[in-house]
Amino acid sequence: MTTPPVHAFVHLRSEGVSVLLDCTRGRLPALAHWGADLGEVSAADALRLVEGGVHPIPHNIVDEPVRVALLPESWTGWAGRPGLSGSRGGRDWSPRFTTTALTVAGRAVESPGGDATVVAGGCALVEVAAVDDVARLGLLLLVELLPGGVLRSRARVTNLAATAYQLDDLVLAYPVPPVTRELLDLSGRWGRERSPQRRGFTVGVHLREGRRGRTGADAATVLHAGTPGFGFAHGEVWGVHTGWSGNHTHYAERLATGEQVVGGGELLLPGEVVLTEGESYTSPWVYGSYGTGLDAVARRFHRYLRSRPQHPATPRPVTLNTWEAVYFDHRLEPLVELAEKAAAIGVERFVLDDGWFGSRRDDHAGLGDWWVSPEVWPQGLHPLVDRVTQLGMQFGLWVEPEMVNLDSDIARAHPEWVMATGGRTPVPSRHQQVLNLGIPECYAHIRDALFAILAQYDIAYLKWDHNRDLVDAGSHPDGRPGVHAQTLAVYRLLDELRAAHPRLEIESCSSGGGRVDLGILQRTDRVWVSDCIDPHERQMMQRWTAQLLPPELLGSHVASPTSHTTGRTHDLGFRAATALFGHFGIEWDLRRASERDLAELSAWVAFHKQQRDLLHRGDLVRLDFPDGSMTATAVIAPDRSRALYSFASVDRADVVLLGRLRFAGLDPDRRYRARPLMVGTPPSGLFPPPWWGVGTAVGQASGGGPEGAHAGVELPGRILTEVGLAHAPVDPDHVVIFAVDAVG
């Protein structure tokens, strides 16, 4: 008896989002709707919704309406990028799949024939199995609506024939409506990661390829399509993110016939995935977020990430990293002194950076030899680790397990473990090469070395670095491309470490702010936003990294007075106020800080600890402000009971006064008290407006100071949001922070 084809609609709803999947007539699922919540939808209305979008047949296109499936198929007449590309020596290159099974939240959906039904659910996983009996390919599509209203999907293709099938490309596509006529994604460079760029959504393909073997500083991160002029708080916006840490794509495509999609997937190198009979390839998750304004898109990502069981649940420890304090100069006494000064001001985690292992006295040698250097540490790391833990701090350690210097014991012993192709050594970068973790013996060696270090010392945190692109990344002995296998091996290594050490936290660092993606974030606890800690640059980089990740996952440190990457010099208040809106830490040689600086930094550490529950659980709001001299950011409690606002002057405005600043995101029907907060030295050039209080300067960060009518102003949320309060001018590269608390 032949199984009837799947014939159903699936309607998923969560937090103001609806996803309506058309799984009718045995065809691959298509997104009939992804966007604002539709409410309850009957089978009849679902059918009318789909039929209402079927276009007419004008001249010179195929004679049947083109239906764009989640995995677009060429046989339908779709003239855009196909979802699946591959062949068996030129055959079976245009598959036509028929769905054979549909499961929603673990329950099979029967297809008795006749009218289609609607299967309704909230956050649920939808599994669609399909097959092409001619091309001998099996397909499994997974579609899931996550907490926060984030949509994600992935595909698994299986070779069912005896002849090998070479897979060249597999991408998933989400249709977006014709109102989306503008694109926004991110680019960047080392030291200035995640810079926004906009363009029109015109006919053709806007393709962002990551060919660095990792998520680079120039990665698209999130590709948005929206209504013209969309901003943080206005305009409908659809965003996609490819959750993969190797080569990958994001793309937006508009056809001359008017169809528009956004999507992505893994970028496969030639011959990288060849499936023998019974073998499968699974694509990375492609995430989608919809909302009114970029903040709503970001907030969905944040809420999803916070809903995960592995998301950091404890307060994020204030962290000091030693890199810019000592670089490779590892000596016990100065590092103990640094640790003691850190503990005295309230630091909770002390991280020893590069230079503790092998022959690693500079960046030319020793990388890959993961044992403590007896030359630098004759007693091992025990004296330092013991002192750090005695001071009440956690101890963290820098590692770069995927990389190797050719001047190292491991490279001399196993040159075949270095990724290469064509009989040549890849061009060096930072004097290093890449270890091929796709080789089982190499993987086991690195895994065992890391396990040995973790067994020997009380290590709570690994700063996991990755400081070069994968160039000519072939695998011994035939030189076949190995980025796909390398990425999976890194994931497996991280998974093994976390399983054996469930309390261990890991930071994803990659030449600073590379490898920021939801693939690596399933296995790590924060990212390093950038090697550039200049707060002027960080104001923008943190603002846009937060389009994907919430503040508690953004490593954000107080820099040295003069930035090591830009040479700019900034007051402590600007450096600390910028670091406040992230996972707060310090990257500064505190031995050289004055007692006054240490006292002020201690106040900032205490203030962050006081506010971090709000900062790391609240909703991020980035205020649209037409003057580029001002960057405005807020974090608002989910119940709208309190908020912190940062108004940062990052340039000199072309007018003296910027007028009223609006406190967006408050409950319009509640009353609030808004007041400025000063931690340490007031910002330079400050001219307080009268509403701050008669005869007083400001409220204090500790919560003390002038209260009542002399400490800010009490107003309804609607007035603060829609009208605002007079701006307080400050010099460029200074910040004013305001607390807004519900009254009563």
UniProtKB/TrEMBL annotation:
<dbReference type="InterPro" id="IPR000111">
    <property type="entry name" value="Glyco_hydro_27/36_CS"/>
</dbReference>
<feature type="active site" description="Proton donor">
    <location>
        <position position="531"/>
    </location>
</feature>
<dbReference type="InterPro" id="IPR050985">
    <property type="entry name" value="Alpha-glycosidase_related"/>
</dbReference>
<feature type="binding site">
    <location>
        <begin position="353"/>
        <end position="354"/>
    </location>
    <ligand>
        <name>substrate</name>
    </ligand>
</feature>
<keyword id="KW-0378">Hydrolase</keyword>
<dbReference type="InterPro" id="IPR013780">
    <property type="entry name" value="Glyco_hydro_b"/>
</dbReference>
<protein>
    <recommendedName>
        <fullName>Alpha-galactosidase</fullName>
        <ecNumber>3.2.1.22</ecNumber>
    </recommendedName>
</protein>
<feature type="active site" description="Nucleophile">
    <location>
        <position position="465"/>
    </location>
</feature>
<dbReference type="InterPro" id="IPR017853">
    <property type="entry name" value="GH"/>
</dbReference>
<dbReference type="Pfam" id="PF02065">
    <property type="entry name" value="Melibiase"/>
</dbReference>
<feature type="domain" description="Glycosyl hydrolase family 36 N-terminal">
    <location>
        <begin position="28"/>
        <end position="275"/>
    </location>
</feature>
<dbReference type="InterPro" id="IPR031704">
    <property type="entry name" value="Glyco_hydro_36_N"/>
</dbReference>
<feature type="binding site">
    <location>
        <position position="509"/>
    </location>
    <ligand>
        <name>substrate</name>
    </ligand>
</feature>
<dbReference type="InterPro" id="IPR002252">
    <property type="entry name" value="Glyco_hydro_36"/>
</dbReference>
<feature type="binding site">
    <location>
        <begin position="463"/>
        <end position="467"/>
    </location>
    <ligand>
        <name>substrate</name>
    </ligand>
</feature>
<feature type="binding site">
    <location>
        <position position="430"/>
    </location>
    <ligand>
        <name>substrate</name>
    </ligand>
</feature>
<feature type="binding site">
    <location>
        <position position="531"/>
    </location>
    <ligand>
        <name>substrate</name>
    </ligand>
</feature>
<dbReference type="InterPro" id="IPR013785">
    <property type="entry name" value="Aldolase_TIM"/>
</dbReference>
<comment type="similarity">
    <text>Belongs to the glycosyl hydrolase.</text>
</comment>
<dbReference type="InterPro" id="IPR038417">
    <property type="entry name" value="Alpga-gal_N_sf"/>
</dbReference>
<feature type="binding site">
    <location>
        <position position="190"/>
    </location>
    <ligand>
        <name>substrate</name>
    </ligand>
</feature>
<dbReference type="Pfam" id="PF16875">
    <property type="entry name" value="Glyco_hydro_36N"/>
</dbReference>
<keyword id="KW-0326">Glycosidase</keyword>
<dbReference type="GO" id="GO:0016052">
    <property type="term" value="P:carbohydrate catabolic process"/>
</dbReference>
<dbReference type="GO" id="GO:0004557">
    <property type="term" value="F:alpha-galactosidase activity"/>
</dbReference>
